[in-house]
Each structure stands twice: as structure tokens, then as C-alpha cells.
Amino acid sequence: MTIPQLQETIERLFAAGPAAVEDPAAMDSFLALRAAIETGAVRAASPDPASPTGWRVNTWVKQGILLGFRLGVLEELPAVGFSFVDKHTYPARHFSVSDGVRVVPGGSSVRAGAYVAHGVVCMPPMYINAGAYVDEGTMVDSHALVGSCAQIGKRVHLSAAAQIGGVLEPVNASPVVIEDDVLIGGNSGVYEGTIVRKGAVLAAGTILTRGTPVFDLVNGTILRATADLPLIIPENAVVVPGSRSVSKGKGQEWGLSLYAPVIVKYRDDKTSLSTALEDLLR
Ligand SMILES: CC(C)(COP(=O)(O)OP(=O)(O)OC[C@H]1O[C@@H](n2cnc3c(N)ncnc32)[C@H](O)[C@@H]1OP(=O)(O)O)[C@@H](O)C(=O)NCCC(=O)NCCS
Could you tell me if the CB of 141 is within 6 A of ligand 1? Predict the structure, then answer.
């Protein structure tokens, strides 16, 4: 089946709703899509210079991933290659299908339907969800999450506990995109379709969502998501977690501050040195 044929079939099956489960073509189409994502032949979002964000959402791919959940039934999964030792009075609970509890495998796990390129390093525990794309030479450090459909570029460092949110639904919503050579510092979170452009650095503890204004001290501008565009962190920006005082109402009276990520500079030699040190950890 060619990719355009696969796209057509998946769009038809998605439009069919719950009835798709009965369609004999459904499982084969889903498995073909899953395999194509795993080879990198198709992606949930692709670079597109013609689009205002530089990225195009491939809605049909996300529809196909959702179709996979619709078609899936619960089954027991063997835990291959693990051995555990603990007090015999507290063994691991065993669940079976009849319990109706879904336990997703692994301290570290890469789910089928994710693309993980040659040279990616995964430190346990970490998780890469379906539809994600993780490009060459990227480090996914301990406790890092690459959410469903997130697009991670080449030589990205997702530091310990970095959380890259998944955006599966709505199907036309842009996933989070982290472009090449970005450093996402420890305990950072990037959510809700935010795009982090090439070479940018998020200092440890930076959280970005659609609703987070980002204060660019270098250019004197405030970056925000709009109705049409997600929050976009510019190329080579160095973003650190800051705060801003509330300027009105009770917040001002009470002397409150709100969290405010700040672009303190654009990448320079010192930044490259700081991030190069991180590279040594690979
Ligand atoms: C952002 C980072 C890379 C530093 O980049 P840098 O280019 O060397 O930054 P500089 O030291 O020149 O700092 C520039 C300004 O930002 C401030 N700054 C730097 N890092 C900051 C941080 N994490 N939080 C708040 N402010 C910070 C500096 O104080 C400086 O401001 P000043 O001139 O008013 O003092 C570093 O702070 C960082 O967070 N690294 C990631 C660490 C990490 O998560 N490692 C994970 C290992 S698994």
C-alpha cells in the first residue's frame, strides 16, 4: 500500500467511528501506519516552510494513532529481561485482563508507533509514547517523557525529568516540537503545541504552555501564543525561569508574583560551553 493509499484508508476508517472496528482493512492499515511511523517514513507533524509555524500537522497520522487505541484489546504482556528482589510479603501485584486495569510496561519504555533514530540514548526510567519522533543523537535522560506525537530534533538533550507533553487530540492540534540542537534543562516542561526553535536553551525548571507569556529582554518583546499560532521560542534563545510582580488588584496589594519565563540572552560562546559540558554526560 502506498502512503497516499494508506492516508485515504485511515481517513475513511477514522470517519467511520466505532464501526471501524468491524472493518477488515482496519487492523492491517493501522499496523502499516505503525510500521511507517517506526521507520520515520510518516510523521505526526513535518517541517513545512510554507506554514507560519514552519510545521505542518499530518492530521491523518494522528487519526491513525487514535484508530490503534480503538482497535486494541487488553492483553497480558510478558516482562522480558527484568529481575526483581523484594520482601516476599510484598510481591508485585499481578493483574489479569479481567481486573480491567491497564499497566503500561517498563520502567523505561518506548511504545510501538514511535520513531527513535539511530544514536538516540535513553536513560532509565524514561518513556516515549506513540506517534513521537526522536531524531539522531538525541539524549532522553532519566525520568524524561516524550509525549504522544511530540517531534524531537537531532542532538537534542532532554535532561533529567524533562516533560514533553503529548498532543494527540484534537487531531488537528500541533504537537510539541523541539527542533535540532535544543537543550531542555532538568525538570522543564513543554506543553500544548509549543515550538522550541533550533539551538534554544531552556534552563532547568522552565515551564512553557499555550498560556505562558515569555519575556524577551533582548528584543523588548513579550511572546505569546495566539488563536492561530502556538507559543514559539525563537532560535538560540536562552530561557530561564523568572517571576514578575502582579501589577493590579489584590495580587498587587498582597505583593504577589507570577511565574515568568525570561529570554535573558541569545546563545553565545558561554552558553555553548555550558551546554557542551552537558554533552560530556552522554
Ligand atoms: C541556561 C544555562 C545553560 C546557562 O546558560 P548560559 O548561557 O551559561 O547563561 P549565563 O550564565 O551567561 O547567564 C545569563 C543570565 O541568566 C541568568 N541565569 C542563568 N541560568 C539561570 C537559571 N537557571 N535560572 C535563573 N537565571 C539564570 C544568569 O544569572 C545571567 O543573568 P545576569 O547576567 O543578570 O546574572 C544553565 O543555567 C542551565 O539551566 N543549564 C541546564 C542545566 C540542566 O538542566 N542540566 C541537566 C543535566 S541532566
Answer: yes
**What are the CA-CA distances from residue 31 to residues 54, 76, 211 (Å)?**
29, 19, 36
pLDDT digits (tens, 9 = 90+) for 141-196: 999 999 999 999 999 999 999 999 998 888 888 999 999 999 999 999 999 999 99
The pTM for the full model equals: 0.88
Index of the ligand 1 atom closest to the CA of residue 185 = 44
Ligand 1, atom 35: closest residue by C-alpha: 264
Please tell me the number of Cα atoms within 13 Å of 36 on its side-chain side.
22
Contacts (Cβ under 8 Å, ≥6 apart) of 170: none
Report whether the peptide linkage leading into residue 170 is cis, meaning its omega lies within 30 degrees of zero: yes
- The angle formed by the CA atoms of residues 159, 140 and 119, to the nearest 5 degrees, is 130
Collapsing DSSP states into helix, strand and coil, what is residue 124?
A: coil
Which grid cell is 73?
484489546
How do residues 196-216 score in pLDDT, each as one tens digit?
999 999 999 999 999 999 999
